[in-house]
Amino acid sequence: MAKAKVTGWKQKRPYIIQAPEKFDYQELGTTMASDSKFLPGRTLEVSLGELMSDRAKQHLLISFEVFEVAGDKAKTRFKKFAINQGYLKSKIRKGMDKIDYQTDLALTDAKVRVKVAALSTQHVTSPKKKDIISEIAKVLSRYKNVNLDEFAQQVLFGKIGTDIYRKIKKITPISRVEVLEIRKV
Predict the structure, then answer these.
(1) Where are the chain's structural domains?
(2) Phi and psi torsions of 90, nearest 5°
C-alpha cells in the first residue's frame, strides 16, 4: 500500500510577529505559514497592558496588521483600537447619561472612524447634548494634521480623551470621556 503524501504542518515554518516602531518592535507572537506571501493581511489583537506590562491598561485592545515580511520577521502596522465593552459597562451607573459621537476623520495618511463616549454624572438635556457633541467634533478636528500612528499614540495615552473632557466639563458635569474605537476606513 502506497503512503499518502504528507502536507500541511510539515511544510509550514514559524514567523515572528513584531509590533511597530512606536512599540520598540516587541515580539507579539508567532504564526505559521508555508510561504511568506501568505502573511500580509493577517491581523493580531493584543492588549495595551501586555505591550506595556501595565495591568491598568488591560482593557485597551489594539489590532495590528502584517504588511511586510523580512526573513522570519513579520512587520506590523496599526489597524484598529478598541475598548473592551465590559470595561465601559462597568463604569456606567444609574442616573448617568452616555453621549455617543462617531465621525470619519481624514488624517494626513489615512481615513479613520472615531467613536467617542462621554459619561455624565446626571441626566443631560438635549441642547446640552448637542453642545457636547459639537465640542467633541471641534477637538477631533484639531487632529487632522497628524498621521495615523501619532493619532493612535494620542488616543492610547489619553491625550485626546483629556482634551475632550476639559472642553465639555464646562457644559455639564462629566465623569469620564473614552475614545471607544479607532478603525481605518
Answers:
(1) 13-83, 85-184
(2) -70, -20
Residue found under cell 493612535: 152
DSSP-derived pairing of the beta strands 60-70 and 27-33: unpaired
Per the CB < 8 A criterion, the answer to whether 65 and 162 are in contact is no
Enclosing H/E stretch for 178: strand 174-184
| Reduced DSSP (H G I as helix, E B as strand, rest coil) percent helix, strand, coil of the chain, to 5 | 30, 40, 30
Element (H, E) at 37: none
| pTM above threshold 0.90 | no
Q: Which three cell numbers stand for residue 9?
A: 504542518
| Residue written as grid cell 454624572 | 121
Instruction: Kindly report the backbone phi and psi dihedral angles of residue 2, in degrees, each rounded to the nearest multiple of 5, phi listed first.
Output: -75, 145
Give the angle 64-88-122 at the CA atoms, nearest 5°.
145
- Separation CA 50–CA 36 (nearest Å): 26
Topology classification of domain 85-184: Tetrahydropterin Synthase; Chain A (3.30.479)
90-142 confidence digits (pLDDT tens): 988 888 999 999 999 999 999 999 999 999 999 999 999 999 999 999 999 99
